[in-house]
Amino acid sequence: MEKYCDTCKSHEEHRRLGPEEKNWLIRRTGRRKVDEFLVCTKPGCRNLRTGFDKRPFGDHIRLP
Question: How many CA atoms lie within 13 Å of 11's alpha carbon, on the beta-carbon side?
Fold first, then answer.
């Protein structure tokens, strides 16, 4: 799905997180549930956002 990426400053394709990525984000943030997060698929970006919030963490968090 195409959403605005605050890192890329443009509309880019985003996808839902896979199981390993969800586990990483749970450990990184301490949240119990991370199903609402999407990751930017533009090469080199991997910025995280939710379906409604471009910057849910204040600072950018990118998947490794």
Answer: 3
- Reference 25, options 38, 44, 13; nearest CA is 38
Reported as a single tens digit per residue, the pLDDT across 33-43 is 999 999 999 99
Amino acid making up residue 62: R
What is the pTM (predicted TM-score) of this model?
0.89
Of 17, 1, 10, which is closest to residue 62 (Cα–Cα)?
17
Q: Which helix (H) or strand (E) element contains residue 38? A: strand 37-40
23 sits in which H/E element: helix 19-29
